[in-house]
Amino acid sequence: MFCIEFREQSQNDLLKILRNIQGNKYLIVDEKLSGSLSLIIQTSILQEHGVELRHLLSKPVQTECTKVVYLIRSQLNLVKLVSAHIQNDLSKGIQREYSVYFVPGRTVACEKIFEEEKVHHLLTIGEYPLYMIPLDEDVLSFELDLAYRDYLVDGDTSALWHIAKSIHKLEYSFGVIPNVRAKGKASARISEILTRMQVEEPVSTSDVGIPEINTLILLDREVDMVTPMCVQLTYEGLMDEILRVSNGSVELDASIMGNQMQEGKKTKVPLNSSDKLFKETRDLNFGVPCRLRSRCFAVIGRLVGLPHSLSSRSAL
Questions:
Q1: Is 30 exposed, middle or buried (0-12, 13-18, 19+ CB in 10 A)?
Q2: Spatial separation of the C-alpha atoms in residues 67 and 277, rounded to whole Å
Q3: What's the DSSP call for residue 231?
Q4: Nearest-angstrom CA–CA distance, 153 and 45
Q5: Closest-CA residue to 191 (of 182, 199, 183, 200)
Q6: Phi–psi pair at 310, nearest 5 degrees
């Protein structure tokens, strides 16, 4: 349930940003964020709020809309790309209102780039505090792909603050977590940052009541370096090994999903607990669902009166 509440809160935060910008809007999202955003809000809801959605590309902005909103991570290369878009518009005499919202927060380095590119005065800069992505009804992800490398190789500890801030944000909805257990240097550091945040930005116990989360366990990746190198033997793991699960979905040829008119085109298929069959089979050994499927085909075949030899998926 907490993932559903978190998704609704994140959706409301985004809609609040968009409502503050009157009229139609051209929302440009950096490609890494677009998949995560699809788990927060549906495109149809954005359209209802006068939003046209596009990915952030190197190509100049081509729209008649006068209000352009950028939703990007705090990365210097993305900031330079946004600056290039604005400079291209200025060179053509195109006047627009530009808003840039950093996910999950702004940085001094990024704003410095805008100043160096001489576009800072044209921007409205804000933050969209999306610290975690709800991948399923009981799974939240930080989506920090390079956090371990950044911390261990580059000595960049910003991911530790990000994680602590994410957990503290959860506490505003579900109460202060009374027991925090950490194993590893990075995890211990996160626990320290979280404790400091609880003092500096206290959560009102009268607002949230009894804590819904009793214990938090933090583990460094270096505690178990072997597991990521192992072959996944569950059904969901097999799907990931072959099809690559991304943002809780896989991309399949449209013809496989029964749309013969769009053969060759890809379609996204969600893989989460809303699918009852997948929920039951995702954690089983990958050989078990195959046997279950064969039995289902045989049962359906008998129900429709097909000979046993024809009780296959293609025949059905």
A1: buried
A2: 44
A3: P
A4: 41
A5: 182
A6: -105, 5
Q: Which amino acid is at 248?
A: G
**Each residue's pLDDT tens digit, 119-159:** 999 999 999 988 888 888 888 888 888 888 889 898 889 88
Exposure string of 163-198, with b = 16+ CB inside 10 Å and e = fewer, is: bbbbbbbbbeebbbbeebebeeebbebbbebbeebb
Region of residue 64 (phi > 0: left; psi between -120 and 50: alpha; otherwise: beta): alpha
Cross-strand pairs, 215: 179
Region for 60 from its dihedrals, namely left if φ exceeds 0, alpha if ψ lies in -120 to 50, beta otherwise: beta
Looking up tokens 């008119």 gives 261
Q: Where are the alpha helices (DSSP H) in the chain?
A: 2-19, 31-38, 43-48, 76-91, 108-116, 147-152, 158-174, 185-200, 205-208, 235-243, 276-281, 287-304
- Could you tell me if 257 and 269 are in contact, meaning their C-beta atoms sit under 8 angstroms apart? yes
- Closest CA relative to residue 181, chosen from 129, 144, 216: 216
Does the reported pTM lie above 0.70?
A: yes
Nearest to 120 by CA among 98, 96, 103: 98
**Contact (Cβ atoms closer than 8 angstroms) between residue 281 and residue 238:** no
